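JOB MANIFEST
job_type = single_chain_structure
chain_count = 1
residues = 306
[input]
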Amino acid sequence: MEIHSLLVTTDFSEFSRKTYPAACALARKHGWTVHVAHVAGSLPPFCYLHAEGISTIIPQDEYFEALDRRLVEEVKGDPSFEGLDVKTHLLSHESPHEAIVEFVEERGVGMIIISTHGHTGWTHVLLGSVTEKVVRFSPVPVLTYREREGASQPYAPQRVLVPFDFSQNSRAVLPAVAFLAENYSSEFVFLFVLDASATSGFPFSSGALYESMQRAAAEAPKIARERFDEIQRREFPDIDAEFEIAEGIPAREIVERAKELKSDLILMGTHGWTGTRRFILGGVAEKTVRKAPCSVLTVRPEEGGE
């Protein structure tokens, strides 16, 4: 993971402020620049400004100037940012997730840190659906941050769950595995989920095709374990990693296993293959982000991956 800077988004809510210590802990440990951005929607020439129970109408440029000052004050007022190279950015775009993605592409930012909840309205990022869209379209890793109760540090993942379907795209997480192992001595549980929905509801209970699918499902655990052992020997022999197999609905199994393990982090790709023994990591990633009990780090594969 070649990263020199990160972007943390804010809508000035308490939810987004919880991301600041984690972002700053990462930046401080690795010497990264921190970009802090607030996305304001596309606004009419005159805007309503509501403060202390009083609404006033001001010109658009004055409104943006007020937002920009508030963003600067937000950073200055939070001790997490002290001593770091911090740059603030007020972005205006009718689509918040597009503004965020365009920013990281133009500035060469290496990671996005974002919350899962926030305010709504003209001047705020809707951090629920926006987060999922950022996860889906971001060209760089996205840390969807959830503060874990009892954590001694804002970001020091010790127990990491890695959903893995053996596709070339899912292997996009392997550089992040090496990064976390080297910098945080993380321990990993790789989880392969046999998607029970792939064969359930099959219209025929007999016949050659059905029997072939049943045999493939029965052989899948053995084949998966052999493939994981081979990948581990070849690509990360010195990293502490276990391999588990579950059967069910992928996103649900991932979330439940993260709860059982008391994981600090779920690390997963955003795209994968489809088929009887593989799950689609695109939709699964977004569902996992929505329901996860901990932070989720999603990694997009390089273009052309399968």
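[summary]
The radius of gyration is 22 Å.
The longest strand covers residues 187-195.
exit_status = 0
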